[in-house]
Amino acid sequence: MSSYAVPVSLGAPRRAWLTDLPVLVVAVVWGTSYLAAKGITTTHTVIAVLVLRFAVVLPVLVAAGWSRLRALTAAQWRGAGTLGLILAGIFLLETYGVVHTSATNAGLIISLTMVLTPLAEAAVTRRKPPRAFLAAAGLSVAGVVLLTQGGGFTAPSLGDLLMLLAAFARTVHVLAMSRIKAVRSADSLSLTTVQLGSAVAVFAVLAAVPGTGASPWTVALGFGAREWAGLLFLSVFCTLFAFFVQMWAVRRTSPSRVSLLLGTEPLWAAAAGIALAGDRPGVLGLAGAVLVLAGTGWGRRAADEAADRAADRAADRAADRSAG
Hints:
EamA_dom, transmembrane, membrane, about 325 residues, Permease, transmembrane helix, single chain, mainly alpha
């Protein structure tokens, strides 16, 4: 992983925060997106809302990257399309999940992706993760157990289980993106556009199936000002704005720093759920939230440190071979 070094000048901290602030805003809007989705979605309108959410931004992405889309190879189209199918599953699980659980639970449970992804990668590559990372993963799992039992020990809700499945699906998506060779060299904007296009196609097909809920057209006609504001927030800020900020920030700082700032998403999800939605996780739930945040943060640091050590060892071996 690359590291972030602040140049020695009086203006450097200010310039760093000028880059960090938009990324932090993305983490905030992503954290509040669970509450926004919960406010405009019911069990019968999940698919319709997903169609509307991404149909709003897809034309903008296509127009912005039309020339680069045309430059994609057939293999890149297939790879991005496959990733889009996985992405569709993620959004279905997340949106149905948030309908059936609290915004606080949704944001914190989905943060387990930060722990699950390195574990899955270790299983695929057959490289044992560091002990510190395994301890952090255990802490996060314990936190989720407590979080979902805030009102007393009962079976986890359907929404909690769906969010957990979404975390696993996000892990599959990350691993697939790293292992599908064709997409590694693809332009980021084109890759995202094809993925979202594939996801919208899945949602549109599902919306046409009888018994899957209200149609997008019916839902759009029934929306009032509050619902349209929520939908535009999800479309413009949580999707379009977030994507362009990430592209802009990664070119001006390190991926590690961007990832660290985006990792505060579950904190904002919990804050929004408690402050705006009146979520009351109870003492057990609050303890679980703290453990999830601590475990994911610790796990991220442990994974980054292990990656840095591996990179240093590889550099040392390369230097030794060059010297020999």
